[in-house]
Amino acid sequence: MGTQFTMTRGIVQDLLAQAAKAPDEEVCGLLLGQGGHIAHILPAANVHPDAARWFEIDPAVLIGAIRAARNGGPQVLGCYHSHPSGLPRPSATDAAMAAHDGKLWAIVADGVIGWWRDGESGFEALSSPAQRG
What we know:
- With 133 residues, this protein is an alpha/beta fold.
- It is built from three helices and eight strands.
- It has a single domain (6-132), classed as Cytidine Deaminase, domain 2.
- Helix content is 22%, strand content 36%.
- β2 (28-34) and β3 form a beta hairpin.
């Protein structure tokens, strides 16, 4: 997937709504779609013991999404999470935990979404995607 990507209308509102559900904890989930198009999000439980400062996507949700993709379902294009008291950019913890696999990251903070790609040499800031469909 290149630097450009698009998303279905409503994704921004969905991400902001997810973050608003737990304003004191990091919410998280997956970005699903095909190619460079995010079609929908898949919320997941944050299973980290300190959910106010860290996120860990429920492994069962991640494994289920990967299995569904292998069977022709939407691909896992990346993940999202919120920073309840931070900025919409990767934290030092995010950078340390990143897989450097080229996946998209959406980080929600204070009503703003930062879009990033987890590249080989670290996070690359992306412009907000075009919305379609």
